[in-house]
Amino acid sequence: MAALARAIRPHGVTAVCGPLLGGAFLAQLVARALDAEFCFTERVMPLHPEGLYAARYRLPAALVRRVSGQSVAIVDDVMSAGSALRGTYEGLRAHGAVPVVAGALLVLGSTGADFFAERGVAVEAVVRDEYPLWLPADCPLCAAGVPLEDVTVAHNSDSTRERNAL
């Protein structure tokens, strides 16, 4: 967390925001290290989700005044496609905040980072690693008919095993 806070510090942010659940806890720690305001966004799924990034992230009304007009860092623990950070970015901008940097402990691949680069938002990471990510139409496993999850196999949970042991 300290390394991420150090990487974000030069961007001069006055607030740090993270999506609930994982990112918000990290954002709170980074905000404290930077002596900045802290806020969070909440995930909201539309009734009829469409597209890859259908989830929206809403800034609670009680936090709107804290970030309006502020330079904000948006923080999550891991960014690959960056869907939670994308949603947080949009939610903050809708309330007059200015996201200037997106940060993560781990950035996988370039999909999320590219989104922010196209918008002039810096991306800071403690660690970066390669991560192949495809659209469903381009996915080699999808093309081969490999299921993401085999729901035909019964999963034996710990509680089931405990009941069977009695």
Radius of gyration: 19 Å
Number of domains: 1
User: Which parts are unreliable, with pLDDT below 50 for 5 consecutive residues or more?
Assistant: 159-166
Would you tell me which CATH topology applies? Rossmann fold
Query: What is the rounded distance between the termini?
Result: 45 Å
Topology, number of strands:
6
CATH architecture term: 3-Layer(aba) Sandwich
State which percent range the strand residues make up. Answer: 25-35%
Counting DSSP H or I runs of 4 or more residues, the number of helices is 7
Q: Major sheet: size, sense and barrel closure? A: 6 strands, mixed
CATH class: Alpha Beta
Average pLDDT number: 87
Order of helices and strands: HEHEEHEHEHEHH
Structural account:
With 166 residues, this protein is an alpha/beta fold. The protein has one domain (2-133): Rossmann fold (3-Layer(aba) Sandwich). It contains 7 helices and 6 strands, in the order αβαββαβαβαβαα. It has a 6-stranded mixed sheet with strand order 3-2-1-4-5-6, with helices on both faces. Strand 1, helix 2 (22-34) and strand 2 (37-44) form a beta-alpha-beta unit. Helix 1 (2-8) crosses helix 2. It is globular, with a radius of gyration of 19 Å. Residues 159-166 have low confidence and may be disordered.
